[in-house]
Input
Amino acid sequence: MIAQRTLKSLTRAVGVGLHSGQRVELTLRPAQPDTGIVFRRVDLPEPVDIAVSAEAVTDTRLASTLSKGQAKVFTVEHLMSACAGLGVDNLYVDITAEEVPILDGSAASFVFLLQSAGIVMQNAPRRFIRLNRPIEVREGAGAAEKWARLEPYHGYKLSFEIDFNHPAVDSTGQRVVFDMSTDSYSRDIARARTFGFTKDVEMMRANGLAMGGGLDNAIVMDDYKVLNAEGLRYDDEFVKHKILDAMGDLYLVGHPLLASYSAFRSGHALNNKLLRALLAQSDAWELVSFDNDKLAPHGFGQLVRAW
Ligand SMILES: [Zn+2]
Output
């Protein structure tokens, strides 16, 4: 059986929110089968649980935000990406502020936390969303065109293309394909950091955003070059971060996907629109599990390798 997974023990981290700049404590705790991933605002007078779902995503400007009533959790995508990459199904995420800490700006710190706590199989089958036919969403035209698509695939594959007209990005790969069966998420995708441009950062700061952002948790560029002294972690770190983000955004659907995702200039908003389009067409997908590991896609039965 391809089994659900949770943590062996709890683990903690302290950091700052990328946008709020607020100090936040994060505790990741094991959860029972079929719990899913549940964010818990433990700082509110009455703790509020927000279970991940495509419908719980209420704001996609700059980051994916979940809401329930007045309670919000900003910037969930990098932690969600680590959970998708390591195949964690059930998890409580206790946080003491409204934003998940940015840590190093990638998913690597979350991968490290999850791996250190240990990941265990549970006595319940993983339920995957399997695509039966393609789903696509498109926006804009010409230079503003963007799209995202899910197609049937026996496994999980992502292909992303960006189109940044910037010397530092132009000189790197702008398209990357990643297949989960390669078992290389931690090594090849998780370390890609978020990125921004100094001129945007100044504008965001004036609007009270990116208050926690800096050279230690983002790739920052001026009009010509990368400003981080240590340079890039991957030659194609920019587009790899977009794959990382897409994996986090798509895992908000609440189940791992059996699909091929491809996207051109997509982002948090279009990724969520794609999930909503998928869920709205109930004949386009079905929930499946694998009693026999041999019928599952290659590599889906084992725990993912660290680094
Ligand atoms: Zn990101």
About this structure: The chain is about 20% helix and 30% strand. The mean pLDDT is 94. Helices lie at 77-86, 108-117, 167-170, 185-189, 198-206, 237-251, 268-280. The first strand starts at residue 3 and ends at 7.
